[in-house]
Amino acid sequence: MCEENLVQEALGQICWLEVPVRDVPRAKAFYMELFGWEFVPEPQKAVGDCVKSMHFFNKGKTLHGAFLEHDEEYHVINNNPDKPGALPVLPTLCVLDCEETLAEANAIGGKTAV
Which segments of the protein form a coiled coil according to its record (predicted)? Predict the structure, then answer.
């Protein structure tokens, strides 16, 4: 399959997903069994206060992401800049043009929060 077809196939899909977790082995087992995700064997040490390590995964050629291992004092919540101890699940969608897609989303009733 040529690269252009891969791009067209990925448009509108989640291409990167960050999932905060406390128990990495449990999360890996769950998502591997449920969705068939594959994992990079060695984690990456994360930069920052709340994330201890990043454990990369993928599903085929379109979905890639990481489990963000965090301490008990942090919790998962909707993205809120006023709560630095809150880690959101963060999906990233594949689009050709970010500005154009945001403008289109706003035109049909969406809101942009940056």
Answer: none
Residue 8 domain-assigned?
Answer: no
- Report the CATH number at residue 58: 3.10.180
Per-residue model confidence as pLDDT tens digits over 66-106: 999 987 777 676 666 676 667 788 899 999 999 999 999 99
Q: State how far the alpha carbon of 37 is from the alpha carbons of 12, 29, 69, 77, 92, in Å.
A: 20, 9, 17, 23, 17
Q: What is the CA radius of gyration of the chain?
A: 16
| Number of structural domains found in the chain | 1
**Which domain does 81 fall in, by range?**
13-107
